[in-house]
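Example complex used in Figure S2.
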Amino acid sequence: MGFIGYFLVLVVSSVVSCTKFDELFQSNWAPDHLLIEGDYANLTLDSLSGCGYESKKKYLFGEATVQIKLVEGDSAGIVTAFYMSSEGPNHDELDFEFLGNVSGELYLVQTNVYTNGTGNREQRHTLWFDPTADFHSYSLFWNRRSIVFLVDRIPIRVFENKEESGVGYPRSQAMGVRGSIWNADDWATQGGRIKTNWSDAPFVATFRDFEIKACELEPETEDAEAKCGPTRQFWWDKPSLRVLSRHKAHQLKWVRARHLVYDYCKDTARFIELPKECV
Ligand SMILES: *[C@@H]1O[C@H](CO)[C@@H](O)[C@H](O)[C@H]1NC(C)=O
Ligand SMILES: *[C@@H]1O[C@H](CO)[C@@H](O)[C@H](O)[C@H]1NC(C)=O
Ligand SMILES: *[C@@H]1O[C@H](CO)[C@@H](O)[C@H](O)[C@H]1NC(C)=O
Ligand SMILES: *[C@@H]1O[C@H](CO)[C@@H](O)[C@H](O)[C@H]1NC(C)=O
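Predicted assembly (279 residues):
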């Protein structure tokens, strides 16, 4: 066993991806609630605080993926987020927000897109698996044509560039990759009716296997458009990625039919006139 055991350890450890969490990220809120162990990060919420992290670099186009195992058991009132955002009042932002629930009831995944400081573009989905039982991957794909939200590589939402119709599109501000957990029991679960049960704290969501394949910029960049522009021919600018493949389009249709529970584009009670991109 001795020799073979040693050999297996060597093989296994060379396969495991070795990006250490703290090579890519740093805490941006309550460092004592962010527990890091190699490429794992536990985001902890208790009655004192939630916590968050952000990437050291900023990115303009590309893809960010993470695997998350969400808070188990009673997670009512708790929101865990994986998102990208630029800075300032006119910021751009792409969000995955996981809205917790009482034990045994479904989490909802809320996605949103902010352009130039304005969001209000929520969609909500249920998932086809229990996101607390195991790790699943969540990706934000972003090029000049569209933004795609993927769950285990299955697209759940596409936000297309409709600048010709006067709709803002995030394409000039570099964004950081971020994650957080916080108490949102004023709105998150069943419309805010169910509050966080602090006797179950601390609440822990585990993030791992970060993968950022994107055009990387230092925080105070330079000419972002030149560095990340279409002439550089990055993989996300490939013609084949201008629209979803037939297979992916089919998957999106399936998700929308089975798992979409709220779409701002259908919310005529909320918007007197539906946002332009919905028409
Ligand atoms: C992170 O959380 C998991 C699951 O709750 C636990 O098994 C692990 O020991 C935690 N790691 C750290 C560094 O806190
Ligand atoms: C972004 O919003 C600001 C006002 O908050 C406005 O002055 C500016 O023109 C907008 N930019 C774009 C690209 O729409
Ligand atoms: C929580 O469970 C209730 C009851 O099944 C459901 O209506 C709701 O959409 C679920 N999710 C959230 C975040 O409230
Ligand atoms: C809060 O959690 C505790 C321990 O799990 C449980 O005994 C109690 O009934 C819960 N309270 C509510 C309001 O659900």
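The first strand starts at residue 25 and ends at 29. The chain has one domain: 3-265.
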